[in-house]
Specification:
The structure is a single chain. It contains 10 helices and 10 strands. By secondary structure, the protein is α+β, with helices and mostly antiparallel strands. The mean pLDDT is about 95. The termini are far apart. The longest helix is centred in the middle third of the chain and has 37 residues, at about 240-275. α3 packs antiparallel against α4, α6 (about 240-275) packs antiparallel against α9 and α8 (about 320-345) runs antiparallel to α10. The strands form 3 sheets. The protein has a 4-stranded mixed beta sheet with strand order 1-4-5-8.
């Protein structure tokens, strides 16, 4: 493997502070994350110490209010931080995105008392969060979830099973969506559940084709009691909270996808310049040069799409359609770019000696999480043509 370092992405950032922030993130990624990524992914090791470092550096609460320990950065800056982290190791980039998703409900819908009590530790106190919406029988159809929260005196008792939970079993807190009323989206409420709550257990993590260092597990709620002070928003408001979080989370996945694709392109370009066949670097051959050009174009287009959506969000304008478009395009592009990177490296690309095979395996999950790309197409079509009439 070559030791040639990839060139930093030429980013258009709004302030000098944000440029310094991205420089810090690149330094942390190069020093603390990238060198151990392949070995730790292969062994399935979760890098909790990296998340502690990121918390200490103020990187786990970037898009949130500074009065509660957040970084007060616009989404267009936060997402580019995610991209840099994901390029170094998707387990870390996606983990930061999931943590931000877990904080979204309380930051956006919690009372001032709740925010003061919990957000400082969540945003900058070394805690790590997870988001609990999906269930074994409620994935794309999240409104059909069956985990129940029943009133009991001045609190609630939660019973049920959540599935596909990133950081399941290692998180310090969970934002949990549970049914408190009638079937359908209006009967769902959000709760903030401590990771050490009595009756809360995690199953053995799933055995995945990629992101082996990021634990994904079912969570079992066996009569977990939480006080009403940990209910987020109003009763029955949970699905609205969940959808708002998912719009923001989809942008995080889009940024992570661009990071993975960028890492694969960097590896492919470096290899093509170093590898010689027929007396020339393979980068001299037109067929391969065109592949690299197409890969780079997909990445630039994806980056522009997610940043355009982020700027809408930062301006307080609707961005749900654009978030779905960004998630759809960027993750499909990541799958295509990483597959082409493996092809460019040939037989070496199919071995674990080079990172492109791992990047290809990781890209696949990004087409699935935070709403499959088929769901994204449904969201986009509804914005264009209205709800289905069937």
């Amino acid at each position: 493997m070559t030791d040639r370092a990839p060139q930093p992405v030429d980013r258009q950032l709004p302030t000098e502070e944000s440029r310094d922030l991205l420089a810090l993130v690149r330094e942390i990624a190069q020093r603390e994350i990238r060198p151990r990524a392949a070995e730790e992914e292969d062994s399935g090791r979760f890098p909790r110490e990296v998340f502690t470092l990121l918390s200490e550096a103020g990187l786990l609460g970037l898009p949130y209010d500074g009065s509660f320990g957040g970084g007060e950065q616009p989404y267009e800056v936060y997402l580019q931080v995610l991209e840099e982290l994901a390029a170094a190791r998707l387990t870390v980039g996606l983990g930061v995105s999931v943590h931000s998703l877990a904080c979204h409900g309380l930051a956006g819908y919690g009372s001032k008392e709740q925010q003061s009590a919990h957000l400082p530790a969540m945003l900058g106190g070394g805690l790590l969060g997870a988001y609990c919406l999906s269930e074994p029988a409620a994935g794309s159809d999240a409104a059909s979830l069956t985990t129940k929260a029943v009133r009991d005196g001045d609190g609630w008792v939660i019973t049920g099973t959540k599935a596909w939970i990133t950081h399941g079993g290692v998180a310090d807190f969970y934002t949990v969506l549970a049914r408190t009323g009638a079937p359908g989206p209006k009967g769902i409420t959000a709760f903030l559940v401590p990771g050490d709550a009595e009756g809360l257990t995690a199953a053995v993590p799933e055995k995945k084709m990629g992101m082996k260092g990021s634990p994904t597990a079912q969570l079992h709620f066996d009569g977990v009691r939480v006080p009403d002070s940990r209910r987020i928003g109003e009763e029955g408001q949970g699905f609205t909270i969940a959808l708002a979080a998912l719009d923001a989370g989809r942008l995080g996945i889009a940024a992570c996808a661009v990071g993975v694709a960028q890492a694969a392109l960097d590896e492919a370009v470096t290899y093509a310049l170093d590898r010689k066949q027929f007396g020339h670097p393979i980068a001299d051959f037109q067929g391969l040069r065109f592949m690299l050009a197409d890969m780079a174009t997909k990445i630039e287009a994806g980056r522009a799409l997610y940043l355009a959506a982020a700027r809408l969000r930062d301006a307080g304008k609707p961005f749900s359609r654009q978030a779905a478009m960004a998630k759809l395009f960027c993750t499909d592009a990541a799958m295509a770019v990483t597959t082409d990177a493996v092809q460019i490296l040939g037989g070496y690309g199919y071995t674990a000696d080079f990172p492109v095979e791992r990047l290809m395996r990781e890209a696949k999950v990004l087409q699935i999480v935070e709403g499959t790309n088929q769901i994204q197409r449904m969201v986009i079509a509804r914005h264009l043509a209205g709800p289905e009439t069937r």
